Amino acid sequence: MKNSPIFIIGVSRTGSKFYMQLLNSHKEIFIAPELMFKHPQKKDMFSTLNEELKQLDNRSLMDSIYNLNLKGSYKSTIDLVPSDLLIKHLNKDEVKNPYDVLNIILQLATQSEGKKIWGAKFPIHFSYTNELLKEINNCLVLFLTRDPRDIYTSDYTKKSKEKRTTGNKFPIKGYLLKPAVLFYTIWEWRRSLNVYGQLQKSKDHDRVRMFKYENIISQKENVVKDIANFIDESPEAFSTEEMKIVDSSFSKKLELNRWKKKLSLIEKLIFKIAVGRKMKKYGYY
Fold first, then answer.
1. What pTM value is reported for the model?
2. Is the dihedral of CA 4, 5, 6, 7 positive or negative?
3. Which residue ranges does UniProt annotate as crossing the membrane (predicted)?
């Protein structure tokens, strides 16, 4: 499905920034950074837009879009959207739900960047992937995953560094931080793979493809070919020269299976008991 919208979905710490950089190296593709469009726990765009759409006032809706106080990179994308064009499209297009608004915002941001194919990195929580496929016609999804033991190692390192900083919102601190991150990682990773498994049984299975973090370290050229094949583009249209495989938890050189040096025997056993079968199914045992 050439020229389809492209979305990067999955759990955190799975290399989403690399995939965004890679796709954006294509002269026709613009992948917006995280928009916090729809999330089950965090403040998001969806709930605000849903309320505004009930009022049938496009001017008020537009004001809400520009004034939303969301963390992260939301503002950098919205700043690409000219207000005159946004209100024009809101008035002209049939806007039924927040996904229609997301569609307009991403298309206008892409035009501002001088590109044609649009998408976003982690606009929704992975649990809404089926909804995204339904609401955005012909869109394609890169579904990211990683060895959950390395997700845990990375996420705990990141959160332990942040716990003393102002504004950190992770609710658990101190001695309870490590077990909290451990069990949260297991819960989220298992949920994400359950969602992926359901998608593979659905009629839209060909619009979703899994990509593993480990492969962008050990098989980067093959990953580029796989992505190009999936979105129906030429591998030569992408540039990997300036691609950075980022793990913001560590300043050292990236390496595979960092968990082997970091996890205790008890932690390894917990992973085996809790998600060992699913890890084996996806090649992590």
1. 0.92
2. negative
3. none
